[in-house]
Structure formats: C-alpha cells, structure tokens
Here is the input.
Amino acid sequence: MNQLAKSKPAPPDLKQSLKIMIIQELNLVDVNPREIEDDDPLFGDKFGLDSIDAVEVVFQIKAHFGVVIRDMKEGRKVLQSITTLSEFIEKHRPA
Here is the structure.
C-alpha cells in the first residue's frame, strides 16, 4: 500500500497537549489527563462539559493551534473526542 495514501495518526504529544489544555482552560480540577481516553466523548456525563464549554474549546483551539472551527456542524464532528479533535488540527494546522 502506498504510504502517502495512509492516514497518519496524530502524534501522542498533540493528544496529550489537548487533554492538558482542556483540563486547564475549562478548570476541570478533578480530572487527570490519564483519565481522558483518546476516544472518550468529550461532552456529556463523563466530564460534565456543555455547549458553553464547547465555545471555549473552539476559542482555545484557535488560540493554541491557529486552527479555526468554522461552524456548529463542523464543531459537532470535530469535538467528539480527543482523537477527532487532534485529527482535525493535524489536517488544518498552518504550516
């Protein structure tokens, strides 16, 4: 298989950075980065995040990584998990 055709997974350090950023910026004082699995749903019961938190995450993604999530439809897909968020950042990160 052509190596260029393969989807390249996001580096583990990006995922770790996202976990730390979310914890710090959303003041999740009782959450440790190790408790966030890459494919855990970010919003809902486990972490108690809501739509206000989603707006803050979108803002922080732009501030930290220079990547803009343009609309709610795109945001719903991107903000599902650390994995979906890191893949989006890798794909759209400025060079």
The CA atoms of residues 27 and 90 lie 25 Å apart.
